[in-house]
Structure formats: C-alpha cells, structure tokens
Amino acid sequence: MPPFERTAGLVRTGGVPNVVNLCGRSPAKRMLIVRHRNRPGVLAHILGEISHAGINVEEMENVIFADAQAACAKIRLDDEPSPEVTQRIKDGCEHILALSLMTLSE
C-alpha cells in the first residue's frame, strides 16, 4: 500500500494499520480527567505540568463536544500527580473547568 493510502486510513479511522506490537494492557496506574474549554494551549499546559512532575503519559484521548467549545481530556498516567501538581494544572489555565483523578484497577 502506498504511504499516502496508509496515512489516509489513519486519518479516516484513527487506527494505525499493520501494527503487530501494541501493548495489550496499559501500564497506567491513574487517569487524570480534565474538562476544559477547547482553546489553544490548554493541553500543552496540562502536559507541561505532568512532564515537570516526572510523570509519563501512557495514553491520552481528547474528546471535543458537539459545539466545539468544550472538551474532555482523559490522560492515563504511570504515577499519581501530587496535590500540588493538580493544583498547578487547575490554577495555571483559565480554560480548565474541572479536574478529577481516578485510580485504575490492576
């Protein structure tokens, strides 16, 4: 398959074609859920704070709501962010509406 067709499939379905070594189960221990306004820089702010804390993002999904004004980011992490990190995420961006942290079952 020509490279363009492989890329078009990725854009169309979101799936990566011909992958044979995907992780069966994510090693993530926590999921950070952030409801936010759909504005430039919001995800960069969140990911910057997570990175500065030395926490790795294992998986991420950002779902945009119907009116394209709000979104919800689900970010699976390899460790739990401290209360200080979550507070910096909340306080550091006016477009963050709500933030919650879940423990993922093992």
Which terms would index this structure?
106 residues; four-stranded antiparallel β-sheet; 29% helix; 30% strand
Structure overview:
Helix 2 (42-52) runs antiparallel to helix 3 (83-91). It contains three helices and four strands, in the order H-E-H-E-E-H-E. Strands 2-3-1-4 form a four-stranded antiparallel beta sheet, with helices on one face. The chain is globular and about 40 Å long. The chain has 106 residues and is of the alpha+beta class. Strand 2 and strand 3 form a beta hairpin. It has helices at 3-13, 42-52, 83-91, and strands at 30-37, 57-64, 70-77, 96-103.
Number of helices: 3
Q: How would you sum up the global shape?
A: globular
Query: Which residues sit in consecutive blocks of at least 5 with pLDDT less than 50?
Result: none
What is the residue-averaged pLDDT?
Answer: 87
Structural class call reads: alpha+beta
Say how many strands there are. Answer: 4
Give the fraction of residues assigned to helices.
25-40%
What Rg do the Cα atoms give?
A: 16 Å
Give, in spatial order, the strands making up the sheet with the most strands: 2-3-1-4
Strand content: 25-35%
Main β-sheet, in a few words? 4 strands, antiparallel
Distance between the termini: 39 Å
The secondary-structure element order is HEHEEHE
